[in-house]
Predict the structure.
Amino acid sequence: MLNFFNYSFMVNALLVGVLIAICCALLGVVLVLKRFSMIGDGLSHVSFGALSVAAVLNISMPLYFALPVVMVAAFFLLRLTENSKINADAAIAVISSSALAIGVFFASINGTNINLQQYMFGSILSITETDIAISIALSVVVILLYILFYNKVFAITFDEGFAYATGIRTKLYNTLISLLTAVTIVIGMRLLGTLLISAMIIFPALTSMRLCKRFFSVVIMSVLVSVVCVVSGLLTSFYCAEVPVSATIVIFNLIIFIVFLLTAQFKRLLAKNKSKK
C-alpha cells in the first residue's frame, strides 16, 4: 500500500478519482430517480467529440475546449426533452451518436495523432497537473452547489409539479443539474473514458437504492459505494499492471450491485417468512 503513494501519477489518479466518484454519486441519484440517467452516456459522447476536435486543432488545454461544448449540449438536450414531441431517449440517442461520429471523423483525419483508446477508456498517465487543478476546482463547485441547493434538488426530484406550484423555479434547477452533470462528465473523461463514465453515474445510485429507502441515506450510501469502487479499482490496477483502471472500477460497481441486490432479496424472503408465522 505504501508503494502506491510513491508514484505521483497514482496519487493524482486517486485524488481526481475520489472527487469524480463523489460528484457522480451525488448527481446519479437525482438522474436515476428522474429517469434521466442516460444523459451521462449522451454527454460523454459529446465530450469525446469535443476532445477529438480539440486534438485536431492542437489546442493545448482540451478540457477548456470540451467543457463549454458539453455544457451547451447539456442545456440543448434539456430543452429538447422538455418538448413533448421529442422523447428523452431519442434526443439523447441523436446527440450521442452524432457527437461520437464527429469525434471518430476528426480522429481519423490524416496527420493527426489521437489515441482513441485513451479517450474511450481513460488513462491514468493522461492526467496532468493542470487537469488535477481543474478537476479539484470544478469538483468543489459541483459539491458545494449540490449542498447549497439540496432542498430544491430534493423537491424537483420527487415531485416537479408540486415543486413548481410551491414557487420553486424548476427549469432553473433542472438546468443546474444538467450543467453540473456536464462538468462531472468532462472531468471524469480522463480517468474513465467515454464508454464507462456513465456507469459511475448509474451504478452507485442503483446499488444504494437496493437497501436504502430515504433520499438522504441513498445519497450517502451512493457516495460511499462510488468512492470504495474507485479506490478498489485503482489499487487493483496498480498491483495488477495489465488490468485497466476504468474497467476495474466498473466491475467493482457491478460486484457491489449484485451483493446489494442479493442482500435485498434475502431480506424480503426473511420478512415474508416472518409475516407467515
Q: What stands out?
A: The mean pLDDT is 82. The radius of gyration is 19 Å. The first helix runs from residue 8 to 33. The chain is about 80% helix and 0% strand.
